[in-house]
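Blinded run. Sample ID left blank on purpose so nobody reads anything into the name before looking at the predicted structure. Input follows.
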Amino acid sequence: MADAPALEIEHLSHPANPSLLTIQQHVMREQRRFPNATGEFSWLFSGLTLATKMIAARVRRAGLSDILGSAGATNVQGEVQQKLDVFANETLIESLSWKETIGLIASEENDRLTAVHYGSPGAKYAVVFDPLDGSSNIDVNVSVGTIFSILRCPDGCADDPAKWVLQPGRKQVAAGYVLYGSSTMLVYTSGNGVHGFTLEPSIGAYLLSHENIKMPARGPYYSVNEAYRDSFPAPYPAYLDALRKGGLGKKYALRYIGSLVADFHRTLLKGGVFLYPPTADAPGGKLRLMYEANPIAFLAEQAGGIATDGAKPILELVPDAVHQRTPFVVGSRDELELFHQMAAR
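Blinded prediction complete.
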């Protein structure tokens, strides 16, 4: 019998195209950094991505279906719920409830924690989220988003939901947001940089579009609702004056959308600073620590920025309630260093 011909091998002459990397593949690749990774985190993440695709589809059709306007109820925050608020909340809870690794869910829209697989030995994570940030902008077709934070059950948490959920931001194992805008984009971190993925509707997949995002050390914009300026405490008014008058060597332009995800996304990519100071009516701040400030702060620090409540790093605050509020200043390193200098005077 004649010998079989040797098989020839042609080596790939170019690197793999990063734009063909899906969010699921990226999460699995990140898991390989941990020797004992089991794949459970990527399974959890698939529930988040499925839900946000469904929300994105409904947002795109908002003007063509009966999904705009008030749902006729208020949430635990005392805010009027929009129909899309309710849909987004129910969709996230339903999608995540299939994941056996999730023990608890906390949502901006719900007063109480939701037990999913709480008590199961396989339940290791809690997911905290704002299902539809900026929902007051829905009716005027302004970008909205979903913000999420993932926490791991610490030792001794099995019978103590407060110990599980009320952890400082430094304990987050992952966090991110989805921006429903001119395109749908998911941005997340698991403690190894910040990465962005754009939804390709034709194939229904989030593809890597912004790898290892770095926030510029200095930016051109400041973002704040100046309608409340007269009730801002020191040093906020003086700081805003310094930015406008060239305190860092140039005059800043004001950009404010009124949707945290959209305003932070611009700050992340372009640099600058976003502020939500305390006011006379809200001396403890208005943004929620657990599912707004903490995940955004985690992303900011991983991208090279800084996040503070005006005095302390956001990620060091120990929450005492799921819906706890906080003042919030987040942005580029130069702008935050100036803020801290003025706050110390």
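Unblinding after everyone has recorded impressions. The chain has eight helices and 17 strands.
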